[in-house]
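User: I'm writing a tutorial on reading structure tokens. Could you give me a worked example: one chain, its sequence, then its tokens, then a sentence or two explaining what the tokens reveal?
Assistant: Sure. Here is the example chain.
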Amino acid sequence: MSKNSGFLPKVSVIVPVKNGAATIRDLLDSLMQLEYDKGKLEIVVVDGNSVDKTCEIVSRYPVRLLTEERPGLNAARNTGIKNSTGEIIVFTDSDCVVPRNWIERIIENFQDTEVGCVGGSTKGYYSDFLSRYSDESIIPVLRRFSKREVLSAIKPPLKYPAGCNMAIRREVTEKAGFFNENIVYGFDEDEFVERICKNGNKMVLDPEVMVMHKHRSTILNLLKQNFRYGQGIGSFPRTVGIKSEISRWGLACIVGFLTWISIISSLAVHAVFTLSLISLTALLAVILLPPIALILIYTYHNARNNRGKIAEIMKYPFIDIARSMAFLVGGLYQLLKPKARKR
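And here are its predicted structure tokens:
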């Protein structure tokens, strides 16, 4: 491992956004407060043809504003990369807020010249029930890391960066071939990180690199978000093939989901037509054991640190299961969706 103690590179912060008028002002205000040499910092906002006041708001700040007409975050990210000059390229989203030392924490990890990619944790910006759930869930809505790790490969489902808090060396980015613009749903950034690691670069996951995120505020929007994440996983085998670890993990999840549904369906049919108490008992066990097991796990791990919140925590497993179902249905839908005909 080699380090450069005097490392103070130029940094480009890239923010893809579409219709982010309700949230982007807080992000831009926080970016203006970054404790980093302003002569070595540029901020590039890439707008995806917003129809609200996003561009009007962004134009009030000393940042570069670009427009990308192609769909998807990855197209916007690539446009931002190609129109920026930083040695380190940092990504966040319009519904985030960053701390003053965000860039400094990121750059500390890049002092190791073998590190090509850095990812950090997310924390809810608000303190409402769904924000607390999103942070405390066994299946966090966005990635959270409990300890700093240096890895040479991604490890699904959670051991890789999230696009709202991620940084990459420019030379590594260009060598890897940029983001895959055919992935337009969830997990859009992760195939790129996988390629970076396969090129021999290290990846750091650092909980001290933290951003605050405005999590979804309703159950319906949370389920829509997870359905879209599932679509991303379902698109992997068709866009990048099964050599990808993420593709294989996604397929395993979908096969497991179909197996579970098949078992429930078989037991239900058998119980109805035979009036078998054994089949009915087995059916109830298959359906009820997952939430019961999750309730016990949550209670054991969280009760001592969340006194007075047991009733709230008891709701978490049911949201977990609903999110998982939305995710897996989205994955199955995208995997089986007919390909659009090329004109």
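What the tokens reveal: The beta strands are 11-17, 41-47, 64-67, 88-91, 96-97, 115-124, 149-151, 166-169, 202-213. Residues 271 and 278 are 8 Å apart (CA to CA).
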